[in-house]
Amino acid sequence: MAALTKADLAQHLFERIGINKREAYALIEDFFEEIRCALAHGFEIKFSNFGYFGLRNKNERPGRNPKTGKNVSVTARRVVAFKASQHLKELVETRLSERANRRQAMDAHA
Length: 110
Description:
With 110 residues, this protein is α+β, with helices and mostly antiparallel strands.
């Protein structure tokens, strides 16, 4: 499965909007910088029909060092969490179902 990169997004903006590639890449960088700054300052990010980025507090917990097997304490921390919107979940599920159906049809004809 291929990954969508910032360069891919910039290329898409270049093709769809017509701004040059350098401006498109700068726009993508600025967009992600705004998201990083908002999260760093404790704000939630909500995109309609896409999802929600927020911060979650994780409590201290016991853990184990995988190399030594020694028990250690994993410190409390804040982590970035993403929750997909229902619309995005349904879209992904529909696409996966369509792909599976196409594979089954191709296998049946083989």
